[in-house]
Amino acid sequence: MISIQAVAHNYPGGNQIKFKDWQINSGDQWLLLGASGSGKTTLLHILTGILKPQHGEVMLGETSIYRLSSKARDQFRGRNIGIIFQRPHLIKSLTIAENLLLAQSFAKLPEDMNRVKEVLASLDIADKINNYPSELSQGQLQRVSIARAVINKPALLIADEPTSSLDDKNTAAVLQLLIQQSEINQATLIVATHDKRVKDAFTNTYELL
Ligand SMILES: Nc1ncnc2c1ncn2[C@@H]1O[C@H](COP(=O)(O)OP(=O)(O)OP(=O)(O)O)[C@@H](O)[C@H]1O
User: Of the four, 63, 76, 92, 198, which is 20 to 30 A from 1 by CA?
Assistant: First the structure.
């Protein structure tokens, strides 16, 4: 279970952003919906241990993440949270396999080539294992970023605006992939977006006003 309680944040010189309490059961799939500027990125940073809010408590399972030291929190994130950013952010000089192995070693987990192969196969890009990022299409790169997010079997999978630059057909395909990957890896899924087209794919919605 993941929860935020009485969380509020102030950027220097800005107004306070208050977040209503949220409880997420393991394995749930949630949409985090809000207009531009409503605080989605801020809340994702709070949930992933990147931004300590001035007020409130954030629990991931049994762990109150802001009670950890920042070093322990970085390691906790690497092992427990997979993040899919709007752009893939892969290392260009490394192959797809090497990028994924690096995500394992960042989390201080042993490198496991079988797991790399398994994840790439589940995303239907097994044949790209020894290619460099520049040799892949945008859709394939997005699959690699999903692969990197799930490689360490995180308890929580978060996608930040994964569909905003996609047409309707690709939007549906990416959502289906995220939902499928959260199920295969038994991860809780949060998809943050302002894209109302995706609303029907989710039964749970947390809306920022
Ligand atoms: N580093 C910062 N310093 C000061 N104010 C900030 C900072 N980051 C965000 N804000 C402000 O906090 C509010 C919420 O921003 P946030 O980026 O969380 O919104 P968002 O919902 O993710 O928006 P978008 O969909 O446009 O990315 C906005 O009013 C923004 O101007």
Answer: 198
Residue 179: exposed, middle, or buried by beta-carbon count in 10 A (0-12, 13-18, 19+)? middle
**pLDDT tens digit sequence for 165-206:** 778 888 888 899 999 999 999 999 999 998 888 888 888 999
61-84 CB burial, b ≥16 within 10 A, e <16? eeeebbeeeeeebeebbbbbbbbb
Q: What is the pTM of this model?
A: 0.91
Cβ–ligand 1 contact at 37 (below 6 Å): yes
Q: What is the pLDDT of residue 85?
A: 86
Does residue 88 line the site of ligand 1, with CB under 6 A?
A: no
Give the type of residue at 37: G
What is the 37 CA–ligand 1 centroid distance (Å)?
5
Task: Look up the ipTM and state it.
Answer: 0.94
Q: Do residues 33 and 193 lie in contact, with contact meaning Cβ atoms separated by under 8 Å?
A: yes
Q: What is the DSSP letter of 38?
A: S
* Domains (range + CATH), the chain: 2-207 (3.40.50.300)
